[in-house]
Write a structure and sequence with these properties.
membrane; START-like_dom_sf; Polyketide_cyclase/dehydratase; alpha+beta; transmembrane helix
Length: 174
Amino acid sequence: MKAIKIILGIITVLVLVFFATGLIVKETKYKAQVSIEKPVEEVFNEFNKPENIKNWIPEVQSFETVNKNPGITGSVYKLVVNNQGQEITMTEKVMAYVPNEKVTLFFDAENMLKKDDYIFTEKEGLTTVTLNASCKSDSYVMACIFPYFKGTFKEQDQTYLNNFKKYIEGEKEE
């Protein structure tokens, strides 16, 4: 009987910690970065061509323009992504667009609200792309889960940046 009480006590503590996570951590933030041996203008232009996204994010099944603004900021796109056999439809909104310096994207993907802030800097022909990302959720349970997957989110975005580097450095050399 004592063992059951101990087990139930441990389970109760774990459940309380899990649900407290959603109260304490409102947003999961992380950073990823890659350096590319190309001028910033070329890197920025290739990065922002919608038809190229499938070259470094293989899960993207389709990319459709919903609303394209002349200044790009405020433009909205619809993406369909294959996530482990499940199709997820998300919207992408361009929140900020400063040529050769910055692009900020906001994604709404079924309970996941994600902001990707890409900063482009160049030094001596080497362009560095820095991603400052943040995730949160409308769903309380999802908000409790996100902090535990921070490493997975960061690793996935780092892979995408590495894929972009391979794509852009390999594309022009062929």
